[in-house]
């Protein structure tokens, strides 16, 4: 038997073959990890590598607050008596129940099982006197009866119904109610057909709430609509021993004509929004172009553009005669004509260049004449 099999068998001290030193140290580390980590973290941990080399499995233990709350109550059976007749039936039921405990006896078994998620309500001679939690309960065969009430969260489908909105549009709505019992006594003895009553109440409330809204509000605010319906039903359901968890609107259906109309309206709305966006973009572009024109029309910008044009023209080979009719005084640089000439001379590829700058001939256009072989 291998060390792994010894460990799987529970690490018994009665194993016929001892563990190897390495495997024994691993098992001791595992035991130390489980016993040391559980009090600190409050988690049930299974240490040791998995078959696929995955992480260690960590399981959150069940807390008492997460379990089913206790509904057990005993109002006493002393007041539920009917004289000699009642005592006789109780005694007869006890005798029959005592014999019915045996498996082979054809008499009814007095012990009834209440499953988890349910509550047992015991009545004596038709009068309720005790509620019990899940487990095995003894019931007198002749004088007592037990009713089982489910306290788990339940989902009840509300049938599809046609509802008219405030703007006279007919829609079909499918919904679901999520609810659970909080008072088993009220749910069992306070109302007949609890689920059917909840469905009828939900249909009536949904018809009322949708009738006070326009179609657009019904479509866009489903959560708010469902919350409003749940709040209205909650008041009535509380009297029945029920708490409403939520109401969900599964689907909202329209007629074919209404669907086509809504689709056309949505299309036209998108087209209008696109036109508005395009118009705003054109306005913004016009503003930017206007600002650019104002900037380019300034004297400083015009002079910079003239200098850039002269520099680009001077890069070509051959002789050139360049007239620079610029207002040097406005530029604030007395020696700018010589600087321009030096820049053009340094960037020229070959040949000779002559720059003539008439004194104060502002407002004239620059004339550039390229000449070769002069």
From TrEMBL:
Limits of the Band domain: 109-266
**GO CC annotation, single:** plasma membrane
**Basic and acidic residues biased stretches:** 20-30
Q: What SMART domains does this protein's entry cite?
A: PHB
Highest taxon, organism lineage: Eukaryota
Region annotation Disordered: where it falls in the sequence: 1-30
SUPFAM superfamilies attached to this UniProt entry: Band 7/SPFH domain
Q: Which family does it belong to?
A: Belongs to the band 7/mec-2 family.
The molecule here is called Band 7 domain-containing protein
